[in-house]
Amino acid sequence: MPDTKNFSLRVKVLDGLLRKREGVTIHEMLQVVNERLEERGICTVRTKDTILSDITEIANEYHVRIMRIRDRDDSRVIRYRYENTDFSIFYSGLTAQQSSELRYSLRLLSRCKGFPELKWVKDLCFSMDVPLNYCQEPVLEFDLSIGKLGKSCFQGLFFAIIEKKTIEITYLEENSLLEKMMMYPYYLKQFSRDWYLVAMLMYEPGLLRLFEVDRIKSYRYHPEQEYKDFEGDVSECFNDIRSMHNKNSHY
Questions:
Q1: Cα–chain-centroid distance for residue 243?
Q2: Rounded to whole angstroms, how far apart are CA atoms 11 and 8?
Q3: I need a surface site. Which of 2, 29, 143, 184 has the fewest CB within 10 A?
Q4: Is there a contact between 64 and 85 (Cβ–Cβ < 8 Å)?
Q5: Cα 223 from Cα 166, distance rounded (Å)
């Protein structure tokens, strides 16, 4: 009976094998697929029926023709390949060198510790068939030096900057009062073991402010509010952050 578990990984491996012009046998496909599964500590495929079922699924799902050709040396052996070996269901447009560099970067990131929510790196490694050794210890650690609430906000603030989203934060002032503020986030910077959000308030156009990440108790995206870029290099404004570390400081 075909195995439906780990189908996405098997398809990734089979896609690469079916692009070979000389074709591959079912036995060869089974062997390579199981090698990839073993690298990840995943149970291997037991029968060739699973591979045959996967090939049929690929052909039906992606409307691609998979040819059955006889081996040149032994006509009893059947090999399989795409009719168009340039086809790939995972085509990314990356060169071989770019793909190699990306894989190396992903393996490095997978051994980082301390940055919130790095699970996406392992998920991407899995989807790109990048082998990971789960017995390896981290070799690089981020010291975010922020509390539980700060860590829960850190990732959201990071993506708000990347995706240019206007946000509203709830901020704990020094007088222990909570204040809600609408702003355009631009930068996250660490100074003296503390992390700061660099942003511009909606009611203070042209002025940059620092907000201690650990004091941000919540945030909310406001897609209906148009995002405004800062005119200038935000990072250069804070090269000398020592004179700017007070949360009320601004340019």
A1: 35
A2: 5
A3: 143
A4: no
A5: 6
